[in-house]
């Protein structure tokens, strides 16, 4: 979905660090860092492969993103088209019980790995993180639940377009800026654009109704999620203040 947004906005595709590496002809570069260390940014801040100094963190509720990943792996093993088949409940429970701890830990570690290089965190943190100069500044957090929302999605697209233009990446979309104080009068143009991209029925990223996730969890899984969110909220509230991610974490904790 996000690649579709970038291509639509810029006319230029995004590259994949875990496939062919980042290049200057791409508008964005997707990584799976820190899970796949080979896709992490070069350590040398002068390395031309670093491209822009900023990074965007794509975030989704782990209680839906983890089963989504499991389902993708199930579809791949079953040799069926991506986003077309829901894994059986028995298969989900088996993968959940075997891997939920590790995957939830990875979800949290991905956030702390990227956010530790953020300028806001580095300036305010009482415990400076290691290798500060080797990391990117997280300038935008893109929440999956927001970008797919008809209410918040258009505003999210406007923020993405502003970030791209700030990085000198042309965004040839002539839409009026949204007055956030009274968005109701100005949101229509961006809403139409959002609907064309996110709700496009021909999109390869749309999941059929058969494939919608209905994952089940027990109380121990819920307790682990709450503990993880509490730990992250404490980190980004007290140790390394970051006001943009705390409300998201609290939202996921409540869910």
Brief sketch in words of this structure:
This protein has 9 helices and 4 strands.
Description:
Helix 3 (89-115) runs parallel beside helix 8 and helix 8 (219-239) packs antiparallel against helix 9. The longest helix is centred in the middle third of the chain and has 27 residues, at 89-115. It contains nine helices and four strands; from the N terminus they run αβββαααβααααα. The model is unreliable at 118-134 and 205-211 (pLDDT under 50). The strands form two sheets. A two-stranded parallel sheet has the order 1-2. The chain has a two-stranded parallel ribbon with strand order 3-4. With 255 residues, it is mostly helical. It has helices at residues 2-10, 62-78, 89-115, 119-124, 144-147, 153-166, 188-198, 219-239, 246-254, and strands spanning 15-16, 29-30, 54-59, 137-143.
Give the class from helix and strand content and strand pairing.
mainly alpha
* Main beta sheet strand tally, sense and closure: 2 strands, parallel
Percent helix among the residues? 40-55%
Strand portion: 5-15%
- The SSE order reads HEEEHHHEHHHHH
Shape estimate: globular
Low-confidence stretches are 118-134, 205-211
Produce the secondary structure layout:
Layout: H1 2-10, E1 15-16, E2 29-30, E3 54-59, H2 62-78, H3 89-115, H4 119-124, E4 137-143, H5 144-147, H6 153-166, H7 188-198, H8 219-239, H9 246-254
Parallel strand pairs: 1-2, 3-4
Helix pairs in contact: 2-3, 3-8, 6-7, 8-9
List key phrases describing it.
two-stranded parallel ribbon, mainly alpha, single chain, 255 residues
């Amino acid at each position: 979905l996000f690649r579709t947004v970038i291509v639509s906005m810029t006319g230029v595709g995004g590259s994949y660090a875990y496939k062919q590496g980042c290049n200057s002809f791409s508008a964005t570069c997707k990584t799976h860092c820190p899970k796949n260390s080979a896709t992490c940014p070069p350590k040398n801040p002068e390395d031309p492969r670093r491209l822009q100094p900023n990074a965007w963190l794509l975030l989704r509720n782990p209680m839906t993103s983890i089963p989504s990943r499991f389902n993708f792996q199930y579809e791949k093993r079953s040799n069926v088209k991506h986003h077309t088949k829901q894994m059986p409940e028995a298969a989900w429970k088996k993968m959940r019980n075997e891997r939920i701890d590790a995957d939830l830990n990875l979800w949290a570690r991905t956030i702390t790995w990227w956010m530790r290089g953020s300028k806001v965190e580095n300036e305010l943190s009482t415990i400076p993180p290691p290798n500060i100069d080797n990391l990117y500044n997280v300038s935008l957090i893109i929440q999956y639940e927001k970008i797919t929302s008809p209410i918040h999605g258009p505003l999210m697209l406007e923020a993405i377009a502003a970030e791209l233009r700030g990085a000198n990446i042309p965004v040839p979309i002539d839409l009026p800026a949204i007055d956030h104080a009274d968005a109701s009068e100005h949101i229509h143009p961006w809403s139409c654009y959002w609907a064309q991209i996110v709700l496009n029925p021909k999109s390869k990223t749309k999941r059929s109704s058969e494939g919608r996730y209905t994952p089940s969890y027990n109380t121990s899984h819920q307790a682990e999620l709450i503990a993880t969110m509490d730990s992250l909220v404490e980190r980004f509230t007290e140790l390394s203040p970051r006001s943009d991610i705390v409300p998201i974490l609290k939202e996921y904790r409540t869910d």
